[in-house]
From TrEMBL:
Designated name of the protein: Murein transglycosylase
Record SUPFAM superfamilies: Lysozyme-like
Coiled-coil ranges per UniProt: none
Record InterPro entries: Lysozyme-like_dom_sf, MltB-like, SLT_2
Gene Ontology biological-process annotations: peptidoglycan catabolic process
Organism: Cryobacterium shii
PANTHER family the record matches: LYTIC MUREIN TRANSGLYCOSYLASE, MEMBRANE-BOUND LYTIC MUREIN TRANSGLYCOSYLASE B
Pfam families in UniProt: SLT_2
A GO MF term: peptidoglycan lytic transglycosylase activity
Superkingdom: Bacteria
Domain Transglycosylase SLT: 178-225
Amino acid sequence: MRGLGGWWLFVAFLALAGWLVFGWLAHGHAPVPARAAPSLRLEAAAGDTVAPAAPTQPPLAGSATAASVVASVSSDDASLVSVPWAQATSEATGIGYRALLGYAGASLAMASRQPSCHLGWTTLAALGAVESGHGTHAGSSVDADGVVRPGIYGPLLDGTALDAFADTDGGRWDGNAQWDRAVGPLQFIPSTWQRWGADGNGDGINDPQQVDDAALATGLYLCYSGDLSAAGTWQSAIFSYNHLESYVDAVAGRANAYAAQVD
């Protein structure tokens, strides 16, 4: 694994052609796990299972209003975010600017859509770091339009090394009509994307390879669990994303680190 500052996560086994992404089983329908996750071991700092405190919401862009946040269901969530804040935060954290706009925009949109959820941008950013290095896995990058190019795909879930997931999308999202596999910067499997997929950039398409769409879908998925400011709820929500306690540790540690970097 690699990522910003060097990923401090150690995988004890399961290296498929150099691909080491934690979200391979990516997210059955919350809150009930769809399948058992592969047995990975990740190194995390002690105590990281405490849910991170929700950071202050990113400031709105100068032209954005409360009404525009409400309307963001069908508009570009990234445009809600203050550009100076995003530039400064990207520099402080090392998160790519365009990926950060996706996380922060989704956080602002969810604050309007489900204010009782209290989803922090740092949680989304932590997931993006752990799942794909913010869309940079294997040489990919997030383009100005928010699309990850080349697209990010996990290994086929054909039962060889992981549980078998027969195709559910005809290859539409994952490019394979026989087996499913996780896709995009936040690593959704197609069956989960079909339920939670969202349009965060207002182009009328729910695309798991587009960071605004993927971040908003992740927000909807996590907020299904309830109030994420409650430690137990936050932990359950992250565990539902990937069914490993060590994964929860990893995400919590990363979220706390990002929060500390912008204090």
